[in-house]
């Protein structure tokens, strides 16, 4: 894998502007359903923003603050694994270029 | 006339989503004298929107005359490059034409700026713009859509326009487009790389506000259906990959790694050298073409733009914004007629579908109806890039072995590749029929 000169994904996201909803996450994962369907590794690799991560205890971590709101995870997740909606009014990613 | 409605409403029309489709619909209805509210979930219009970059913008001259001169566009696309990559090579068809700069039909844009400008134009025309408001659901009366709900508030309208993009939760709420097949969806992963103006112009052979657009196929997605893109803005490059979700899932690839793989490809990396990352983003793209365009109306509801599945990948051009604008024009015409009749039934609003079919939007969707199936061909994302580069290598690698004529050399390269001559002929025939 050639190294992207513009940094790792988290480093790149640091350049973006977000209005983070600190009270409420717009992503809910059903850990049991995720484990039963093996959806974890799928979510980890499809998300361009690395919102999902495999935790040591076998659960899937969700960093909703990093979300770029594309909806890929919702499209590929097996039924019942994910509740995903856009963040609340005015919250989330603020593209300055687009 | 049991469909005639005399209900109290807050606005004649509520448009959900201030992208290109929503703004064009709202603007045209306001200029016809209707009361229109435009609701946008982002803090400002454009802040949730992201596009590959090229806007085939001729339609905008009909909507907003002088668009090319007044709108915050980046560059006029005068150079189009179709690039086939293998892992270590590229073969380009590079087309530049002075006629393209005289008859501007394609411009690069950055949506955060463009959409904010479009929404300002809407406000000037009398549209009530409400930014930073997410619509939670539709208000229904039996089968009829009569308004929107945002938090505690309900707002009523004769017609609601779903212009809320490819993930349209409004459509899901109305029972439209609950789950599209994964092969009809792709994710675009994009970086905007800042570079000085003169560096961009030198690297891409451009003068003034001329711009270049690259459509890249072959190795750039490591065999996943889709491709790469590269567009010049005034002082930045928009670059990234589009990855079909069915392949992304089945081929065990990681979306961010495919993006990085493309940006660091030896044919691409020199363009970006010394640049500064301004933004990293992603967005869903509808790839189903005509097959995704269905259920465009309900009683009291009209669906436009990406929400209606109106995007086209023809292999050469990737289109969405022009179709969005066209659908806005068609929707405004049909809704204007519905408002003057006071008839908001599905039959009345179906005039929108008829209007779409009459203009380039419906016609082009039909012309390219077979393109998505053709572009599902896995040979497009691997074997053909390699074959092309092997043919060119045979032509230019004069290593003192005796030369073969071009056709014999090409046949030799074909023999070494996993492709057969019959397959090549079949694919060329399919390309001719679908692109």
List the SSEs and their pairings:
The complex is a heterodimer of chains A (98) and B (435).
Chain A: H1 9-13, E1 17-19, E2 27-29, H2 31-37, H3 39-46, E3 52-54, E4 60-62, H4 72-76, E5 82-84, E6 92-94
Antiparallel strand pairs in A: 1-6, 2-5, 3-4
Chain B: E1 11-16, H1 20-31, E2 36-40, E3 54-55, H2 58-63, H3 67-70, E4 75-85, E5 90-96, H4 98-102, E6 107-108, H5 111-124, E7 128-131, E8 137-141, E9 144-150, E10 153-162, H6 169-173, E11 185-194, H7 197-203, E12 210-218, E13 226-232, E14 236-244, H8 245-250, H9 255-263, H10 269-272, E15 276-286, E16 297-298, E17 301-303, E18 312-313, E19 318-319, H11 321-341, H12 346-349, H13 351-358, H14 360-367, H15 371-375, H16 383-396, H17 406-416, H18 421-434
Parallel strand pairs in B: 1-2, 1-10, 2-7, 4-12, 10-17
Antiparallel strand pairs in B: 3-6, 4-5, 4-6, 8-9, 9-10, 11-14, 11-15, 12-13, 13-14, 16-17, 18-19
Helix pairs in contact in B: 1-5, 1-11, 11-13, 13-14, 16-17
